[in-house]
Amino acid sequence: MFRKAFLNTAITCLGIVAAVNNVSHAQTQSEMNQSANVDYKKADAELNKSYRDVLNKLDASGKTDLKAAQNAWIKYRDLDCKFQSGGASGGSVQAMVVAGCLTDKTVARTKELNGLLHCQEGDVSCVVAP
């Protein structure tokens, strides 16, 4: 009786954990690396959309400045993620660590760019006119 109750409880708990962890079904390191890369590609696509949206609202000078800032940000992002993944250098987990870092920084940059599209009226520091 105790064994049956224990098994039922364990199966129920596993079902709850599976539902919570439904983000990715990756089992192997290779699958986790691929999943992290997919997450990064999605974040990068969203960043590119936000970047284009901001770029389209700028004058020629603003476009030049944003392009320069974005290129500098990309260099920073890539170098910082290389640095932050140094502890996993050469290991099978390195690709996942790099992709996770790239995703986090890309999501943050997307929020930053989106913020430019929603300046408060009267904000004299806003580069994108409301």
From TrEMBL:
Record carries keyword Signal: yes
Gene3D superfamilies (UniProt xref): 1.20.1270.180
Domain Lysozyme inhibitor LprI-like N-terminal span(s) in chain numbering: 23-113
One Pfam family named in its UniProt record: LprI
Span of the signal peptide: 1-26
Alphabetized UniProt keyword annotations: Signal
InterPro entries: LprI-like_N (IPR009739)
Superkingdom as given in the UniProt entry: Bacteria
Protein name: Lysozyme inhibitor LprI-like N-terminal domain-containing protein
Origin species: Advenella kashmirensis W13003
